[in-house]
Design a protein that fits this description.
With 144 residues, the protein is mostly beta strands. The protein is built from one helix and nine strands; from the N terminus they run αβββββββββ.
Amino acid sequence: MNRLRLMQAAAIGGLLLAVALPASAAQTVKVELWNKPDGTQGLTLTPSQVKAGEVTFEITNESTNLEHEFLLYKTNKAPDAMPMNEDSAKVDEGKIPGFKEGSDLAEGVSKTWNTELTPGKYLAFCNEEGHYMAGMHTELTVTP
C-alpha cells in the first residue's frame, strides 16, 4: 500500500511541477536587411537555424536609402529556382502560396514579428523591385 501512495505522490508532484514551469519562450532571430554602395544587397539571419514553434524575428533595415521587406517561404527550391515575374525583377508572389510576410520597413526602421514555424527549409527574402536579384535572400532551417 505504501508503494501505491508513493507512486501517487510522485505523479501529483510531477503534474504540479509541469503546471508551475513557464512555457518555453519564443526563439529570437535577428534579421539585418542591408545594401552596400556597390549595389549589392543582403539579408542576414542570426541564428540561421531554430527549432519548430513560435519564433520572434527582430527585423532591422540597416539601409540609409532603401525600403526593404521581410518575407518567408517554406520550400526545398534553391533560391535561383524561385518563380520570377515577367521582367525577372522580383519573385512572383502569386506562384508561392502560403508565404509569410513579416514587414515592410523604411530605411533605418526596426520591427518585431512573431510567427509559428514548422520543421523544414525556409527562404527568407526581400521582394522589393530588383532586391531579390541583387542578393537579398538566404535560408532558414527549422528543426523538429
